[in-house]
Amino acid sequence: MKCFVRERLVKRMKNIKKLKFYPLDKTNWSVFEQLFESKGILNNCWCMVWRMTAKEKKNNTGEFRKTYLKQRVDDGVAVGIIACDKEKAIGWCSIAPKHTHNSGLGGDSKLENIWSLTCFFILPAYRRQGLGYLFIHEAKKYAVENGAHYIEAYPVEKDSPSYRHMGFIEMFEKEGFSHTGKKGKRRNVMLYDLNNERK
User: Rounded to two decimals, what is the model's pTM?
Assistant: First the structure.
């Protein structure tokens, strides 16, 4: 399946044509750290909401969350990908094996080799140009390269008052994800079969 963004949005990508995408690891933690400490992001989050264990939740502060995520990165655990404009991180997509998350996401627990896409953050100057679609495209490639069979996402409607960082239904529909259910009042569970990327 061709990526929607390559066909329909490329003319709008004034600021993002030359972006590079990298898995977050020890070598680029510092640029990721700068991104998460920039204005416009909940810098006490550190993308740990869906990752925290019961033990970690006992120390549920921004400082501890940062420490917990850094430990995972240092241990070589996949947590996501960053978009960089030259040496500066300008966006983040959380994409990682579902088993590295806690049980709050919902979805199909019987599928094997499934990865979860749970979050986007993009600096204001780079928004509304299709970067979300590019992130989905890169997330598919990253998951395939690491042996995933499926990606599960948990988007909401565009008028949702919460969980907007998890993306919107429309963009995942356009990228070939299918609806498989709901979790709670707002989050939708959507699935992509990565065998489509191997054809």
Answer: 0.88
